[in-house]
TrEMBL record:
Pfam families: MOSC. Residues 28-170 form the MOSC domain. This is MOSC domain-containing protein. It comes from Streptacidiphilus pinicola. One of its GO terms (molecular function) is molybdenum ion binding. InterPro entries: Benzoxazolinone_Detox_Enz (IPR052353), MoCF_Sase_C (IPR005302), Pyrv_Knase-like_insert_dom_sf (IPR011037).
């Protein structure tokens, strides 16, 4: 069991590091309850009501409805980078405590609050918007080397959540493939995981297609 430390949403801000010219990566904690819904589009819509998606080609939608990151890993990054990293700074919607988010298995299901049910569906692919936002030299390479990606989740049952809610892992599949494993596989660090990705029904379609392309099948 873990704790939802904060629910974070973003508003569009100008940037030179994204093709749309705006980004909502700088998310901030919200006071009170936030409604989480299941987006009908594959891209371009957040699962959190009030959270903006600016790069509609690469973010949001069914398989990336909600992004979670662990406070413990943010603290590790803060120590490594020598700077404060507030909740939401990695663009995460959910900042958690007590859960190994990067180690969450594809298809793992979380219950948050009374009714919200989420399913781990994808890993993060760091981009130039993330690098520009962090203003850290060689950030994409560093993030890739550490392989602490957090996890994307799809919405199975909508619900209302708020900071302080409990997070309960209600289902954990037995295949052993985590968000971090998929991350390493897609960055050519764990090629042995690629064939296993083809047999994960809960894995985001785009990740499964990438695995198939790399395997030539």
């Amino acid at each position: 069991m873990g704790t939802l430390l904060s629910v974070n949403v973003g508003r569009p801000e100008p940037t030179v590091h994204s093709d749309p010219g705006v980004t909502a990566i700088g998310k901030k904690p919200v006071e009170g309850a936030v409604q989480v819904t299941a987006p009908s589009e594959r891209k371009g819509v957040s699962g959190l009501v009030g959270d903006a998606i600016c790069d509609v080609r690469h973010h949001g939608g069914v398989d990336q409805a909600v992004y979670a990151y662990a406070r413990e890993e943010l603290d590790g990054w803060a120590e490594e980078l020598g700077r404060a990293l507030p909740n939401g700074v990695f663009g995460e919607n959910l900042t958690t405590e007590g859960l190994d988010v990067s180690g969450a298995l594809i298809g793992e299901r979380w219950r948050i609050g009374g009714t919200l049910l989420l399913e781990v569906s994808a890993t993060r692919i760091p981009c130039r918007t993330f690098a520009g936002w962090m203003e850290q030299e060689r950030w994409v390479r560093t993030f890739t080397d550490r392989a602490r990606p957090g996890a994307y989740l799809r919405v199975l049952t909508p619900g209302e959540i708020r900071g302080g809610d409990e997070i309960t892992v209600v289902h954990r599949p037995d295949h052993g493939v985590s968000s971090a494993d998929v991350f390493r596989a897609l960055h050519s660090r764990a090629p042995e995981v690629l064939p296993r990705m083809l047999d994960l029904p809960a894995l985001a379609e785009g990740h499964r297609e990438s695995a198939a392309k790399r395997l030539g099948v």
